[in-house]
Amino acid sequence: MKKPLLALAGCLAMFSAQAQRDPLKWPYARTSVWNMPLHTSAQYTPAGIKAATDWGFGDDDIHIIARPTAPRRNVYKLVRDNDRYWTNRCERAAGNPVAFSAPIPADYTYTHPTHNNIFAVFTDNTHVVEALPMQYCTDIGQWTAMWPSNVEDVTGDGLFSGGHGASHLSALGGTIRVGELRPGSEIRHALKILVDCGQYAYYRASEPDGKPGYRWPAHAADAYAASGYGGTNPEMQMGALLALKPDFNIGSLKTEPARIIARALQNYGAYLVDDSAWDNYILETEDGPDGNVRAQVWNQWNVKWNEQSTVSGGRRADCNQASWDWVNDMAAVMTNLHVVKNNAPTTMGGGPTTDETNRRAAMACDFGPAGSGGTCPSSPPPTTGFAGTYTLTARHSGKRLDVDGNSNADKARVWQYTANTSSAQRWVIASTGDGYYTLTHEGTTKRLDVDGGKLDNGVTVWQYEANGLDPQKWKIEPTSDGYYKLTSKASGKCLDVNGGSSATADKVLVHQWDYWGGTNQQWKLEKVSSARPALSAGASTVLSPELAVYPNPARAQLTVRYRAAQAGAAELTLTDGLGRVVRHQRHHAAAAGSQQATLDVRTLPAGTYLLDVRSADAQGGPSGRPQRVLVQH
Questions:
Q1: Is the pTM for the entire model greater than 0.70?
Q2: Higher pLDDT residue, 96 or 172?
Q3: Is residue 505 a contact partner of residue 492, using CB atoms and an 8 Å limit?
Q4: Please, is 563 exposed, middle or buried when counting C-beta atoms within 10 Å of its C-beta (0-12, 13-18, 19+)?
Q5: Is the dihedral of CA 321, 326, 332, 335 positive or negative?
Q6: Coil, helix or strand for 11?
Q7: How far is CA 18 from CA 34, 357, 368, 383, 435, in A?
């Protein structure tokens, strides 16, 4: 018993204290092709896929057995001496070897006489064997498989020679898992796609990279590629990374499962791994002891995943409305796919592999204990903090988030409006310390607020007196190309310009809505210089000859001497070369005459600044000239 315990200890040692991701449910390294989000520098070219005519949307399950504690069972290797072993899979000549052994629940069986029957079977918490065709033979009471892979580590890069017959890519990687398609969920990894290679896959015998019919990360193309691949797009080779461009309108899709898939295709893409062999398209989904994705989609949305109706052939009599909407949605998705043509080992997802920042989604987190069911936080706090005064510009319209009439009233309308210099468009952003922020209308105590903290789509977002409650807290997360989405802590819905991407006029109100990737839900946050602190009525500048600063240059502390006309407050303001206020403080003079104050400059960048001292009452002296100050470190 000691050896298994030591193995378990070694396994757990590789997990970080911050780990969350269950390798049984979300495998492979965070930098694997299966987990790397698309880069904002990705280059897209149309894939040229047309709406399917043979079947609305196809199915091809990957059978995943992730039960490390189940009894171990032998899987016997089929020795392929002719094609009869493809159609007579339960024949086993005496003495055939054991291909591998793995934990397989005693009550789980599967067989199909002609399907690919691709399996991924965990041999322990972090290792998997892939095989095809694999099946349980009831008449002989044994599992059999023709082509098993080596035992592979699921915490690695996932690039081993796996279970897909054409590309030899991983059967486990890229498969939509049970539980990933559910209301409100998101798929946070790349997918896998099959298309009719007779129409779309490209083959040329003399490829510059020496890989005819396939490209990285694929290991091969179909054995019949030279005669069976009929595509004309050189980018559409086995292993191509297909994706939806950032401007694809996910909100135009009617069904939620299609929107979830489209968002994954927009953020991660899908690898071409096999030939569907007829005019349809397929995304790989899980089937196994833990359930079946297609059954879950039916139970949750009344959508038949493999609906036979086609856009060109029309709706069949037995096709319900939800399934018909699904067929049309997926036709729209598939016909808008593009190849990421600059996907390569050094530019994974279309940008420098080492650049994990400029990605369309957050990188996956570290691994946690196997079997925990753990996953990464769906909305991690932004890596870059926000503090100061900002304008927010809607991506679709170029117009700013604006308070109607620069009002100071509760429930004042908030809408988009043409950019101007008014404080109606300036928002002071401050952290609440828990990954959320408040946005306060500059010059007021009113914050961006969801009406009553209601949960519904379409609820008004207005300004309201600061109260510290969740309807005034917003999560700020990057989307792409320097834009952000703002999500209400109270509802989980995001700040949205009413009317979608076509609503570009002034005075279009904002509200909250489920995030679907629309450009009317994406905002550019631009920091602006703080407004000069308001002075009392009649304020004026102290006599310049009476103003002195030392030491100059200053390194840590700047001493300011000035003469006050009478007792009262003075305001000391330090501005940088762009006119931005970097230091401001009030100094009280107990009596008229010479005064002395200090300013801390330790955290200021080295450079030249202007110091101005003004009286905060109506009795100050005449105007004077600001003093130039040099800060050195």
A1: no
A2: 172
A3: no
A4: middle
A5: negative
A6: helix
A7: 22, 20, 8, 16, 17
